[in-house]
Amino acid sequence: MRYLPFPLLFLILHCTSVRAQNTALETTETLRAQHLRYVADSTTWDRKMLADDLEAISFYDDVGPMTAGIFPVPDYDLLSEGKFDGVFSGGNTYRPIEINGKSIVYQTFGAGANPHQLPYLDGANNQVFFTLITVTDTIDAEDYTTVTSLISSRNHPDITGEGIIKNKLNQVEFITFWTAENDRFALVNLRLFDLSHGHIIVVAPLKDGTFRSLQINEPPRGKDATDQLIKEDVLRRPAVIEFLTGPQVIGGR
What keywords would UniProt list here (predicted)? Predict the structure, then answer.
């Protein structure tokens, strides 16, 4: 059996890797160029979606720190070779978990097996890309206004989400996105988080009006597995409990 000299083998592998990266770059650049053309071309717009959004325009008021504008968007199928599988939100925002006298709530955002997210799902049929855990002292069990949020596919092939978790002193506000290139970021009260270093963001609102944050690096999971992770693991970790329930944190008796 003949073996290639190591320098030559390295060069071949390196060139193969570069070609793969260049192909991926060309693919995303083509996708972005197509998207820009379609956004400017009214013949590609999904008119039914636009009419539905206009009919529900009042729903988009006050869902997060940014007003969700109604824009015409290209038909999703023009940028996808496969069925759009949807987006979702979750959490326990109306059933807080009581820990040491503090009311703990969490909000999640995720996507199904959409063509542009499917390569990053590791064989699962959905994935949570953003989780926010925080404390609230304002539970509205009647009108359910403690938390308002919106997860949107209207930037297809990208996904965006935003929301507000209220408290009496200084509410927690957040915006997040997941791009077709698998970039994932979030802004929480204007603190920027690169979610590739952990999709779980823990925010403690303090009684002096400031915030503290903690970022937990766990592999992204599906919706049900994420709920299980938060309830049965993360919120039982002593360091997380101390972070969220210290005497300087809002709420409590």
Answer: Signal
SS (H, E, C) the chain: CCCCCHHHHHHHHHHHHHHHHHHHHHHHHHHHHHHHHHHHCHHHECHHHHHHHHHCHHHHCCCCCCCCCCCCCECHHHHCCCCCCCEEEEECCCCCEEECCEEEEEEEEEEECCCCCHHHCCCCCEEEEEEEEEEECCCCCCCCCCEEEEEECCCCCCEEEEEEECCCCCCEEEEEEECCCCCEEEEECCEEEEHHHCCEEEEEEECCCCEEEEEECCCCCCHHHHHHHHHHCHHHCHHHHHHHHCCCECCCC
The tens digit of pLDDT for each residue in 110-163 reads 999 999 999 999 999 999 999 999 999 987 666 667 889 999 999 999 999 999
Question: What is the residue whose two structure tokens read 């326990």?
Answer: 92
Q: Long-range contacts made by residues 154-157, C-beta under 8 angstroms, separation at least 24? A: 154/53, 154/71, 154/73, 155/73, 156/73, 156/74, 156/76, 156/79, 156/80, 156/84, 156/116, 157/31, 157/35, 157/79, 157/80, 157/114, 157/115, 157/116
Distances (CA, A) of 232 to 51, 96, 236: 43, 14, 7
How are beta strands 200-205 and 126-136 bridged, if at all? parallel
Residue 94 confidence class, pLDDT cut points 50, 70, 90: confident
Residue type, 10: F
Per-domain boundaries in the chain = 6-40, 78-245
Give the tens place of pLDDT for each residue, 3-32.
445 554 444 444 444 343 344 444 678 999
